[in-house]
Amino acid sequence: MASNSAQSLSEIGELLLQLDEKPADLANEMLTCAAKRLHEQIVLLQDQTERDMIEFVDMGIEGFLNDLTLVVTSYFDMFVTKIYDKESDDFQERSLRQLNVFLNQNIDKYLTLVHDRVESDIGFGDTQILLRALDRLHRRLLAMRNICRGLEIQRNTVDIIIAAAHQLCEAHSKSLKDHFSDSLSSVRLALVSAKSDNNNGANLNELITNLYMSMLEKVKGVLQDLLVFLQTDWSFNIKADYKGVLCVEGIRESLLIEYQIFQDSCVIFL
């Protein structure tokens, strides 16, 4: 839904109220029409596979979330804050509940789309760019939480970020295993091709040292990539979230286990 369409929807609603349209019917119709237009935005975003993560998130913020915000604030002003003599005493309360459901249904659809995009991108691009995009989205959702009193957004981007950290750790874990396996194969091949028994010991020590240093640098690179999630300049803080704490501890344990297996294997060779 283009922003001007959302604006038009709000203006039409105001005009119909002035023409004595029944507020309850108009409230339902407004959310029904808005839901259809917002669905069109979701479909449009699903096709943006060629855009990078920042462009994808910016498009969602400038389109879907801006339109959703306009609809929510317009509905709130028209049906939640005003008293209508022809409606029941609980009309405002019912309207607020209905708006909360509408808001969270659409936020959930959008964040599910973002989650799917993150899941497809993680491990194949720059983690810093991905998190910069999610940081922008997190800031936007924080702002949306303050748009209207009584509205509550149930889902947030932190769960997506935590899931991304887990997925990236799994990708790095596989990369470490593959790298170690390839390196061991190279060591074995080098030993088999050695011609002199006198050189075997020296060759083995040199090969193991090179293997050790190679894996050490690989692990350092993995840790550096994962530490991006803990930068203090992000608007989110996964360590402040219970799931985030478990995530950080799980990643630490996983990497330590992988590294310990590597060290034990080196000892066996030595």
TrEMBL record:
Keywords: Golgi apparatus, Lipid transport, Protein transport, Transport. It is found in: Golgi apparatus, trans-Golgi network. It comes from the Eukaryota. Acts as component of the GARP complex that is involved in retrograde transport from early and late endosomes to the trans-Golgi network (TGN). Belongs to the VPS51 family. PANTHER family: VACUOLAR PROTEIN SORTING-ASSOCIATED PROTEIN 51 HOMOLOG (PTHR15954). This is Vacuolar protein sorting-associated protein 51 homolog.
